[in-house]
Each structure stands twice: as structure tokens, then as C-alpha cells.
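Researcher: Re-running this chain for the archive, since the previous output was lost when a drive failed. Same request as before.
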Amino acid sequence: MNHNDYEQIKYEVANGVATLTLNRPDRMNAWTRQMHRELTNAIEASNASPDVGAMVITGAGRGFCAGADIKDTFQKQIVTSAAPQPKAENTGQSSDWVALLRRSKPIIAAVNGASVGVGATMILPCDIIIAAESAKFAMAFVKMGVVPELASSHFLVQRMGFGRASEMCLTGRLYAAAEAFDMGLVDRLVSDDVLLSQARSTAAEIAANPPPHLRWVKELLTANGSETDLKAVQQREMDLLQKAYVSPEHKEAVAAFIEKRKPDYRRAAQESAS
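Model: Regenerated C-alpha cells:
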């Protein structure tokens, strides 16, 4: 799929940052299977591009994502649930959203307006969540007669703690951005007019760091975040430290420090590969 073929998202790259915008503003960017496919394709393209160091996901119009499109998901699922399901087409893309985000280059969620249901769970595996003051969050699955998904029952507890995660999921109520920030769901709260610029600025700051090491840090945080075996935690760290110590980026960082200059990680990697 080419970027020009996207119908439900927009994709742009500038200053080492790819911005992926959910683009169904007339439906408050309600999630569809097509949107999922396009987002997955765009993230994979960003991972493969040397011009992209980090990503920002945001929404067009008044909302981030008001949940799943009821007709596209729940109604269609109810109608077809009794029928034999066709074999899934092999698109060469990851169907595991959580695994995709955790193995990808750093991703920041810039949440504008409503972030409800899958609009909330899809951002929990992101590395940083920045919300506009107008943002609102809800885990309203129980009100639809379903339960949380996308490993949100794990990530929500990690971000908010057991009690707050329980309250949010069991009530299904809507939380204002300030309350979501106070509860730990949101990492940073900013005014609406600077949301995207702040997210892109943070993404550019991250993208300036060596790409392999960013992935390794994410790998450690994913594996060790809820690991109780401290020996296993340290072993994972040591394994990746050994890889880092012999990397051209580490050697460049040391040389730049001694020579009192800014490190050029990309040049160092290119010279090492040639």
C-alpha cells in the first residue's frame, strides 16, 4: 500500500518525525478495520524508512478516536458470527497492534478530543501520551457489553495503578483530560493550540538519539516493566549492554564527549557498515 492510497489516515514526514493522523473527522475518527490496516502499513513504512526516527499519532478535527465504528465492527460481527469465517488474507503486516507498537520506533500519542474505547486502548502501548486540555478518555467497554482489549487490562494497571484502572473500567465513565493526567493515564497535559507542536518537538528530540538503542530501550521496558525476577531483568540489560558497547553509535558518543562536539550517530553507523 502506498501512502497516497490511504483513505482513513493522513501521513507526513518532517524533521525526522512521521505524523499519522486518523482522518475520519465526520465520524470523530471512529476506528475501522481499514483504518487499522492503513495505520499498520504506515507504522511499518516508518520503521523501514531512514528518514523517520520517531512517530506521532493524532486525530483530525474535534476528536482523537471516539471508539470503534459500531456498524463496521460490532453490528457486522453480530451478523456474521454464525457464518464460517474466511481465512485471513496474508498482507505481510502485523495483526498484533501491541506487539507492533512495542517493537517499533518510538511513538507518541497526541490526543485531541475524545479518546474512547479502542481510541483509548490503542494508545496505551505508545511510549508517551500527550493530551490536549480538551481531551476526554473513557474505557466504556462494559457499557457495550464487552470487555477491554489490546492488553489494556495490563497497560492501564501499569500506568494508573490497580484501583484507578478498576474504577475506570468498571464505571465506563468519561474522564476529563486534567483528571486523566492526575490519575497517571496521561504523561503530559498541554493547551490545545500547542498539542501537535509539543508532540512533534518531543518526537524530534527522541529521534536525534541512535535508532538501534532506542529500540533496545523499548525492548527492555517492555520485557522488564512488570518482571518480578530481578536476575532476569539484569540479564536482559546485560545482554543488550554487550551489544551497545560494541556499537558504532556508542563509540561515536564517547569520541564526541572527549572532543567536546555533538555526536553524529548516522555518520558513525554508515561508516561502520561500509
